[in-house]
Design brief:
With about 230 residues, the protein is mostly beta strands. About 15% of the residues lie in helices and about 35% in strands. A hairpin with an 8-residue loop joins strand 1 and strand 2. Bound molecules: manganese (II) ion.
Amino acid sequence: MSAYLFPPAPVPVVSVTGEASAYPVHRIFCVGRNYAAHAAEMGVEVDREAPFYFTKSPHALMASGGTMPYPPGTANFHYEMELVVALGAPAFRVTPDQAMSAVYAYGCGLDMTRRDLQLKAREKQRPWDLGKDVEQSAVMAPLTKAGDMAPLGPQRIWLSVNGVVKQDAHLSDLIHSVPEIIADLSTFYHLQPGDLIMTGTPAGVGAVQPGDVVEGGIDGLAPVSLTIGAPE
Ligand code: MN
């Protein structure tokens, strides 16, 4: 077989500050409830024993600065500001001490969520896919190479809607740290270059409406922004 029946979807990519070449994305892993104050606002206990995960299709990627239509099937579409880790080397069954050598870069990302569908699924003990794997819902700012970022911890992570700050925390508030997450994920997956990990959102999540402008930042990284368009 040497041909495709139809043209394959383009490889999803994220740009990298200072690089002419793009970062090709393989998978998007997302960590749930990784800030205590956010778990509390969602009415659930934090599991400090181990992180848990869901995924988004890499084809849900959207570049920062764009407009996404208010998505179908929801009446409660939420922002979640997150630190995103971009891997640049394989990792399988690594220790937290070994994990950081697999990190290529960091970025600001938005995990846009159909909250009503996520909560309905949670209630019925069903998968979260309809709530989380939303088209254009993985919004990514350009990546910053890990070597250009100070050690993670004191950086402020924040998000505003129409200029009003809604989320405001520090990376040191992460329950499961970046090396702990990579080490844990690597017990389930052969992690690869191109794998992105969205590390969870701080407290203060909320709904957006058509016309809203969402902006998020983390000290030392390029900010992320998104405009919500009219429903299709
Ligand atoms: Mn999230």
